Amino acid sequence: MQQYNSIKKKYPDAMLLFRVGDFYETFGEDAVKAARILNIVLTNRNNGSERSELAGFPHHSLNTYLPKLVKAGERVAICDQLEDPKLTKKIVKRGVTELVTPGVAMNDEVLQSKTNNFLCSVQFGKRSYGISFLDVSTGEFLTAEGSAEYIDKLLQNFNPSEILVPKQKKKDFFKEFGEDHHVFFLEDWVYKLDYAYENLNTHFRTKSLKGFGVEHLEEGIIAAGAVLYYLGETQHHRLQHITGLTRIAEEEYVWMDRFTIRNLELYTSNAQNAVTLLDVIDKTISPMGGRMLKRWLALPLKNADKIKKRHQIVEYLAGNPDTLQEIRSHIKKISDLERLISKVATGKVCPREVVQLKNSLEAVIPVKALSTSSSEEALKVMGDNLQSCDLLRNKIKGTLCEDAPVNILKGKTVAEGFSPELDELRKIAFSGKDYLDKLIERESAATGISSLKIGSNNVFGYYIEVRNTHKNKVPEEWVRKQTLVNAERYITQELKEYEAKILGAEEKILQLEQEIFGELVAWIADYIQPVQQNALLIGQLDCLCSFAQQAISENYCKPEIDDSHELEIINGRHPVIEKQLPLSESYVANDLYLNRESQQIIMITGPNMSGKSAILRQTALIVLMAQMGSFVPAEAVKIGLVDKIFTRVGASDNISMGESTFMVEMNETASILNNLSERSLVLLDEIGRGTSTYDGISIAWAITEYLHEHPARAKTLFATHYHELNDMGDTFGRIKNYNVSVKELKDNVLFLRKLVPGGSEHSFGIHVARMAGMPQQVLRRANKILEKLEESHGMKEKSGTLKKSAEDDMQLSFFNLDDPILEELKEEILHLDINTLTPVEALMKLNEIKRMLGKGQKAGV
Fold this sequence. Notes:
- By secondary structure, the protein is α/β, with parallel strands linked by helices.
- The strands form five sheets. A seven-stranded mixed beta sheet has the order 13-23-24-25-21-26-27, with helices on both faces. The protein has a six-stranded mixed beta sheet with strand order 3-4-2-1-5-6, sandwiched between helices. It has a six-stranded mixed beta sheet with strand order 11-10-7-8-9-12, sandwiched between helices.
């Protein structure tokens, strides 16, 4: 227990699995936790004066129990015996050989094949934040730098299993990024620039980080250094598979804030049993492809050439279904190359996995041949870059048996003919039956005992059994070892020597096999980079095949991407909703056109349930799918590159943070209005409905006016049931009214889900209530109240007044900033630091602004 306590002191925040004989034991608090999580028996024992809880499991069950502990969020320190108990008379030396945490795991049971397991680190700099992601199971190492909003978006996208944060920034982290992450706090000295540089340069064996293109990202480098430090702390020192540090280039990808990622339900959803976009479009068949598709979906491209290259390959594959199926049939045979080669680097690979590695590389050969022989240039280049790794495959083939075991101690790992010494030992150990048969024959002839038998047991090894009727014929030199009821058992000198030879051979075989396998694994480590390159290319090809398969089965079209500012969709569909419809229904497709010159904002009115939100979401999904390289659910699509997608869709109370629906809505909308760009696509759904009707209409009107007058002229879809907003189409040149059509029957309403020009007059709320099964009494009363309200408020007049006031205010719009004095004034106000101004300074500043305006009026502004 002294030994246990001294080791536990070094790892106070981890559960310590302490190896005792054939068991891993846990003590005290750890035992209570382990028993609860693993559902194993909790016992007690007295250690002198104190009582201690105890819970354990057999050491060979580690792979069953360890994943359960890690998935429960525990950090687990594995403490093994560091010497052979036979060779020491004292307490066996023990030490922690591995610390497994949610973010640092190599165990297949902990990892999901199509999902990265990222360990993340966040650095709080003076001006910006740094972030780094590392998946130790694949060797991917990424870093970035940016605002809190950007870091938050990356955390949403990469969804790390564990985040490292400096201790002193604990409160700041929770305030900025919320409390639903798995966080571990490190000492503050780890987050120092010179320490990070030294750590990274030592690992990569470089003099500087310029070669990785991250030299200027100081905060990102500090975060990356902390990740490497943590790997050292968790006893992961063999990291040859981490061969580079890649910058996540913010400028290369479409910006989507965390609200948009959540609203569009790309790969997660808050709703139960909801189907996400990833669920619908993921037709990948390899683990590398599954992980790559998630990354592509999180980071759609902004570079037209790169997007077109992906489209060309998808077009070629979709146009040649036989080639597509052949490539996919070979990709199916490829195991997780990235994780296999990482296991080689960390020395955690088993014989069967090395054979899997060889078989996977063999399946790459036909994929390479099919790609290089295609007529599509971009696909040819991918084929050329695939490595055939002949030497590596032949070496594994010649060294290991095809059906090598998982555990090397099971034997039969090394192929016959590889080692003459090993073959000789095997002959001795396993061809013993012939030898023993001959021995029986010889001894029977010499003694005249016809019924001699040879057997063996654990107590005294090989023996000769003689029935009692013949025991008077036994030679004197035989030594009697055991007497049974009907027989006696003897050993001879020859049998003893033979047994020693066999036992020696079996031990030697195991030792030799381990040596040969160890040398092979060390030799394979030189092939880490070519295998990783193959994994990357196969992942990309798998994604493109998945897009082609989806295009064929779901009738998707190739989008046209250019540098214009137009967005034209003909017969667009929602990729997720169309898959959820009953077989008898077909999805109602819609056309849509937006540009910056004549139709910048489309105001969509229509009743609830008519399909306004679906049109908004499908527009965003079509753009996003096109820019990640996929074909899209439409008849034809033309997209001028989009650089930011903003959505404000659906009500989501953030009650846990003390924010109402309306507050959340205003936060999200403010974030959109403050980050607009010329190529933005903005989708607003029912803005202002979280407050009173007139408040809501005023806010929605003002937001739309702002978007119309803003110099960026961002393309916008605004769905609303405030019909008053239809009047904006008469006043503002680039706002066009559309509605989702409805057919009124005598007592009912039929949703046609078709987008048509013109505004809608009614909201049909009472009709929707009827469809929901509201009691008749309530519906009748609602109709009466509605009639009264319409009479007393004179709705028509009210909207006219709104329109008039908007026309009067038009000239005061803040965006008529052609005037240099107003421009200067705006700059002055924006650069004021209100928090540091004293009341006197504030009055003086106001006076100065007044003087500036006075000059402007004299000059005739």
